[in-house]
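Example for tutorial group B:
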């Protein structure tokens, strides 16, 4: 996971900002539903934090027996035209922040607006 993100979480994070680490089984189940493998940096986030956020940014993930917000959001945005190799990690309602699946070998975060053909690198 990105060192900057870890430092921000340590500095600004408060109790209950994050759901709690996801199990390997829950991660594999989410990957299977979406038909892809998560990039290593995102897997590390899921294992450590599950889902949650700080400073107004909510990172989608896996919430144990409550489900997987990353799956729900990714499936929803795929119906709106999102490439099947992308994973939604933040859903603002009007646009999403996303990452490519592990097979693309690109762990950058992108922004995608419904109807656009290109991604914007952040």
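The residue assignment follows.
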């Amino acid at each position: 996971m990105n060192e900057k993100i870890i430092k921000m979480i340590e500095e600004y994070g408060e109790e209950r900002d994050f759901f709690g680490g996801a199990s390997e089984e829950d991660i594999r189940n989410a990957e299977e539903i979406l038909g892809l493998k998560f990039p290593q940096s995102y897997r590390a986030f899921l294992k450590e934090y599950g889902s949650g956020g700080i400073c107004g940014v909510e990172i989608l993930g896996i919430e144990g027996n409550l489900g997987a917000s990353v799956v729900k959001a990714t499936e929803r945005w795929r119906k709106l035209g999102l490439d099947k190799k992308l994973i939604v990690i933040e859903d603002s309602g009007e646009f999403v922040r996303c990452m490519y699946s592990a097979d693309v070998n690109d762990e950058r975060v992108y922004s995608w607006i419904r109807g656009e053909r290109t991604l914007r690198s952040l």
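The first helix runs from residue 3 to 12. Compare this with the pattern of hydrophobic and polar residues in the output above.
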